[in-house]
Design a protein that fits this description.
- The chain is mostly helical and 183 residues long.
- The protein has one domain.
- It is 61% helix and 3% strand.
- The protein contains seven helices and two strands; from the N terminus they run αααααββαα.
- It has a two-stranded antiparallel sheet with strand order 1-2.
- Strand 1 and strand 2 form a beta hairpin.
- Helix 2 crosses helix 3, helix 3 packs antiparallel against helix 5 and helix 3 packs across helix 6.
- The longest helix has 35 residues.
- 28% of the residues are buried.
- Bound molecules: zinc ion (ZN).
- Zinc ion binds next to helix 1 and helix 3.
Length: 183
């Protein structure tokens, strides 16, 4: 992943992460949300954390899984968008010796997008009740929590495949028309 937009990626990640927590908090009384949370707690209960201990704070686990999932999708989409903008600039006014490197980095944008969007293991709970250390979950986000986040929070705007992310795909294709080695 190109590094020049790291700070902005982190910003997008934080905004979506905290907004997801706020959304679940505000909507907690909604029957569909309450049902989702209830099922999520059962799903994570007793599953392994990275430390080898079992999940015993199911509510935190599922809340962090949802927030991390939404944030990861949004920031990965943004990272691809920012990278393409960067390469459009570099390839629009290429320094004589920079084209090959810019092309080789641009060529990785679609596959990096697909790899990031396939990530499913997200979230954490605290190591122990009074600890400030995060202990990552090892169980992939549940299918129904993921589908809910995709549909309700991300409004089905962030597909798994770069080829279906049309605003990104169109920009990549425009670059590939000028630089056929991107195909
Ligand atoms: Zn969080």
């Amino acid at each position: 992943m190109a590094t020049c937009f790291t700070f902005s990626n982190a910003g997008v990640q934080s905004i979506y992460h905290e907004a997801t927590h706020a959304w679940f908090d505000i909507k907690s009384a909604r029957p569909d949300v309450a049902g989702l949370v209830k099922r999520g707690k059962v799903y994570y209960s007793g599953s392994l954390r990275s430390s080898g201990q079992k999940v015993d704070d199911e509510d935190r686990a599922l809340q962090e899984a949802a927030a991390a999932y939404v944030a990861h999708r949004a920031s990965s989409y943004f990272a691809a968008y920012a990278s393409l903008s960067n390469y459009e600039k570099l390839l629009g006014h290429p320094p004589a010796n920079g084209v090959t490197q810019a092309l080789s980095m641009a060529r990785r944008v679609p596959s990096e997008y697909d790899i990031r969007m396939a990530d499913r293991v997200m979230g954490y709970q605290m190591m122990s009740r009074f600890s400030s250390v995060q202990d990552p979950l090892t169980k992939p986000i549940s299918t129904d929590l993921r589908a809910f986040c995709d549909r309700v929070l991300l409004e089905l705007r962030i597909p798994d495949s770069f080829n279906l992310a049309l605003p990104l795909k169109r920009r990549y294709d425009a670059l590939a028309q000028k630089f056929p080695t991107l195909r």
